[in-house]
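## retry 2 of 3
previous attempt timed out at serialization; input unchanged, resubmitting
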Amino acid sequence: QVQLVESGGGLVQAGGSLRLSCAVSGLPFRTYRMGWFRQAPGAEREFVGHISWGGGSVYYATYADSVKGRFTISRDNAKNTVYLQMNSLKPEDTAVYYCSADVPDTAARYWGQGTQVTVSS
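## retry succeeded, writing output
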């Protein structure tokens, strides 16, 4: 059974930082593309970024323009965990953040339950 469990959300002031974690079990973590998405109230779920396997020990990250330079995705394959480091947070970053695992160009995609991030002004 595949499980993705996010943690680390909370309330932070604008300009602050948070680090989200997503612990994964039940799939070959090393080869999966791990992503973060978010959904604000009344809005559609949007892409934040993902980190892809490039073969061997190579991984590369891609980010949405709205978070580029402020957010960083990393992964620890030994712990089957992916992280989202969020710096210089803005009120518009307020959303439920979801972790996802997928294999590009296939139907395989899994989601976590989400963790709330609230940035106060």
